[in-house]
Give the backbone structure.
Amino acid sequence: MARIYTIVNQKGGVGKTTTAINLGAYLAYYGQRVLLVDLDPQANATSCLGVEKREVRGGTYESLLDGNSPRDFILHNPRLKLSLLPSSPSLAGAEVELVNELARETRLQKALETVRERYDYILVDCPPSLGLLTLNGLVAAREGLIIPVQCEYLALEGLGQLLQTIERVRDAVFPELEIRGVLLTMFDKRTNLANDVVNEVRRYFPGKVFESLIPRSIRLAEAPSYGVPISAYAPESSGALAYKALAREVLAGDGVGSPTVG
C-alpha cells in the first residue's frame, strides 16, 4: 500500500511543485512505484512533466467531482518510471462545486484508496491556498505532510495559519494527521540570512526539518521548460544532488532500506 504524502504551503513560490516533481522522480529512480497527483488548477506539475494541460481528457477534477476512479486517467512516463494524475483548467471550478457535495473534504482520500495498492508512494501537489482542494489534500495525507519553506525573509509568515488549519483537520476529520517534514528550499549558503532562516525553522519545528537543503539553482528553474524533472535535465547539478539526497532521506525515514542505485 502506498505511502501518501501531501506537499503543502499556502504561500506561493516556495517550491511545492518543484519538490513534488523532483522528489517523485528520484523515488522512482530508486525503484519505487510513484504516482504524482496534481491538485492545483494551475496544473504546473502536469505542464512541468511535458503534458499539455489543455489537452487533458480527464484527471483530478473527474476523480473528485464525478466519482471516477483515478486509474482511468493516470498517465505513465516509462522513461521516468513516474505516473501522473493530471490537472486541467476545469479544476478551477472545483472549489465552488465541492461546497454542496457530501463528504466534500474526503473526496480525494476515497479516490486514492482505489489505486493505493498499485504504488509505493503517492505525492499530492497542492495549490497555494487553504481552500477545499488543499483540505482534500490534507485529509488524504495518510503518512503526513511535507511543507516546503523558502530560506528568505519572513519565511515563517503564514505558517501559523497553515498550522491552525492542520489542527482543525485533526480535530474534525483526521486526528492522525502529522507533519512528515519541513523542507528548506532556495537555500543560498553565501548569505547570513539563509543560515539564520535555517536555524529559525529548526527551532520552530524541532525534529521535523529534513537535513537535505534545496539550493537556489538555475537548473531547477530551467528543467520545467523542457518538460522533465531535474534528474533527466541536469543530474549532476546542485539541485539534482539535493533532491536525490532528499529521496534517500525519505526512504531511510520510512524504513524502506538502502537505495540500490546512485
Q: What stands out?
A: The CA atoms of residues 59 and 86 lie 5 Å apart.
